[in-house]
Amino acid sequence: MAIHSYVKIWIHLVWGTHNHEKAISKELSKTIYNHLLSRAVEESISIEKLYIRPEHVHMLFSLPSSKAIENIVRSLKGESSYWINDNNITPFKFKWQRGYGAFSVSASQLEKVKNYIATQEEHHRVKTFTEEYNDWKNKYGLFD
Questions:
Q1: I want to staple 89 with a disulfide (CB 3.0 to 4.6 A). Which of 23, 52, 62, 84 is the partner?
Q2: What phi and psi values does residue 15 have, to the nearest 5 degrees?
Q3: Residue pLDDT, tens place only, 47-83
Q4: DSSP state of 108
Q5: Is residue 1 part of a domain?
Q6: Is residue 40 part of a domain?
Q7: Residue in 83, 103, 88 with CA at minimum distance from that of residue 10
Q8: Which residues pair with 10 in a beta bridge?
C-alpha cells in the first residue's frame, strides 16, 4: 500500500499600504494584481482569490507544504514593492505597511471568505479598512 501525504491549508492574507494611505489607483491595482499572479505562478503558489483596494490587499491562497507563510509574504508583498519602485511604476516611493495578517480558513468557510474578498467594494462602503483592521486585532487578540 502506498503512503500519501495530503495537505490543503487555506490562508487569508491581508496587508496594507504604508500608513493605510489610499496609494493604489485602479490602474496601479491592475498592474499589481497581474504582477502578484505572475509571481505566485513562479513560486508555485495557488491563489484562489485576490482583491486589491486603494489601501490594502486581500489574498486567499493554498499554502504549499514546502513553504512558510513568512517566505510567501516576502516573495509576494516584499518583492512587489521593490518591483514597483525599481520599475518606476509610481511617481512616488511606494511602500507597504510593516507586517501582515494571515488567517487560516476552514474548507467549510472557503466560499464565505471568497465572497467576502470579492465584495470588498460593497463591504468598505460601510466600514473603512482602518476600522476593520482594528476590529480584527480585537477579535483575534492581536495587539501592537
A1: 84
A2: -145, 160
A3: 999 999 999 999 999 999 899 999 999 999 999 999 9
A4: G
A5: no
A6: yes
A7: 103
A8: 62, 105
